[in-house]
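> call design_seq(struct)
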């Protein structure tokens, strides 16, 4: 089966002219025992001036009203005097590290002030469970707790370990250097979103029991591969651990704490406003939909995390058409309800219009649309993908929907796995204006269980003989093909 990136090349060869997203539930009640963890360390800003690095993570009360469990990398190397714990009612306390368990990247903190928290109970979970789970925490340093639905990836075989995810990656060598977490640690493979700031957040079952502790993720292209550590196996070991806390900050940029750099002389209220403002600058929202920019990546950074086949196809396209993509960059947005990632060329303005996140090139001759839908179940998602495609054909890019046609040399690409409830469509349509096709529509639908991610691109083919436009087209096409859900 052809990869989606190979389809870009086929489309180009065909088109270029000749030489031219109820009542109080148990998990919500348990969420009252979840806390925000803020750390402060000294650093420098981008001009070399003294500044504070304000780190953010999550944690939960366990074993004792004054005990907090979090991810070790959230507090590693931080002076106890610079750890601040805030509960759901915005009451605050200091804390000190009283135990660590490096194998699973865990830390146990003791509050200096009793915040009236109720200890949660840990419970065993089947790594392949299809039950409902929820992650509660403070993603991206926000000051209002958020709860999101969590799903596990299913597999056949022994219990998964961290090594099964990070083997043969640079990240494995980073972990070996710092000594935690250990590659042989058992993990829960999370196929939905875990966000920066969720480090140490509890994953709760419908009874409000803690079954996992959120830890981190890696990139595959621009999508994320996420994991948590099973709470029943590792959290109780914190009580008897005699391991020494790390003296230095964590090297794990991949793990999901978040941070903001603020001037050294700002007061706490200003610091809070700066953290919240940074979050809001990266949000595009409309109706009930919201996506947030999570990072900016270069072409080479994206290539480095792809599998070899996709790397080859992408590089081959650039070589074949004589376009240098090495200087291109991409902004990656995520829908935190589903874990869907939407990628656009760096600096392009994303807006929300009539249910779609929309952007275009400066000349408005390339139009890019994206949206995420919850269809309730897999069958509905399949049906909705077809219905939305039919609606897209009726948008006024051409005079009549019948003008769109399928080229026999560029057939539709469809892939489906009914067991994992996954499906993917990649569809290309053309319209004629005289002797040659004048417009191209590329439609990509990704389905993960009940969730549906649609991205489509409309291209003016008459401009593809312009080298600058050709590079823009390739950049938008690469962005479209990177649309995906968090996975494993």
């Amino acid at each position: 089966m052809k990869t989606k990136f190979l389809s870009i090349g086929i489309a180009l060869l065909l088109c270029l002219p000749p030489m031219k997203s109820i009542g109080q539930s148990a998990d919500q009640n348990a969420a009252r025992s979840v806390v925000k963890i803020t750390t402060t360390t000294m650093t420098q800003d981008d001009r070399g001036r003294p500044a504070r690095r304000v780190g953010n993570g999550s944690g939960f009360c366990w074993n004792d009203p004054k005990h907090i469990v979090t991810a070790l990398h959230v507090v590693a190397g931080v002076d106890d005097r610079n750890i601040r714990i805030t509960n759901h009612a915005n009451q605050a306390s200091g804390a000190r590290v009283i135990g660590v368990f490096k194998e699973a990247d865990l830390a146990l903190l003791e509050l200096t002030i009793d915040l009236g928290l109720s200890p949660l109970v840990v419970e065993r979970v089947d790594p392949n469970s299809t039950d409902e789970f929820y992650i509660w925490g403070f993603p991206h340093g926000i000051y209002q707790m958020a709860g999101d639905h969590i799903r596990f990836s299913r597999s056949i075989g022994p219990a998964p370990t961290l090594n099964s995810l990070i083997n043969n990656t640079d990240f494995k060598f980073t972990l070996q250097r710092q000594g935690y977490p250990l590659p042989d640690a058992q993990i829960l493979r999370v196929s939905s979103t875990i966000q920066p700031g969720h480090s140490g957040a509890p994953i709760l079952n419908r009874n409000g029991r803690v079954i996992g502790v959120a830890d981190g993720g890696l990139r595959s292209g621009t999508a994320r591969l996420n994991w948590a550590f099973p709470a029943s196996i590792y959290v109780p070991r914190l009580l008897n651990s005699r391991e020494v806390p790390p003296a230095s900050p964590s090297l794990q940029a991949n793990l999901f704490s978040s941070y903001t750099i603020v001037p050294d002389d700002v007061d706490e209220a200003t610091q809070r406003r700066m953290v919240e403002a940074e979050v809001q600058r990266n949000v595009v929202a409309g109706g009930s939909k919201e996506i947030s920019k999570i990072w900016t990546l270069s072409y080479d950074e994206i290539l480095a995390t792809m599998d070899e086949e996709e790397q080859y196809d992408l590089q081959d396209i650039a070589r074949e058409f004589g376009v240098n993509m090495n200087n291109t960059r991409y902004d990656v947005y995520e829908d935190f309800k589903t874990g869907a990632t939407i990628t656009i060329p760096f600096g392009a303005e994303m807006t929300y219009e009539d249910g779609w996140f929309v952007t275009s090139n400066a000349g408005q001759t390339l139009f890019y649309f994206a949206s995420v839908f919850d269809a309730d179940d897999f069958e509905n998602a399949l049906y909705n993908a077809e219905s939305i495609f039919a609606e897209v054909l009726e948008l006024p890019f051409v005079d009549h929907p019948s003008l769109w046609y399928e080229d026999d040399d560029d057939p539709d690409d469809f892939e489906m796995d009914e067991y994992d409830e996954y499906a993917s469509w990649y569809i290309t349509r053309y319209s004629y204006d005289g002797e040659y096709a004048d417009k191209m529509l590329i439609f990509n639908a990704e389905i993960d269980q009940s969730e549906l991610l649609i991205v489509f691109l409309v291209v003016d083919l008459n401009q593809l003989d312009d080298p600058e436009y050709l590079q823009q087209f390739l950049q938008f096409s690469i962005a479209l093909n990177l649309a995906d859900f968090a996975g494993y």
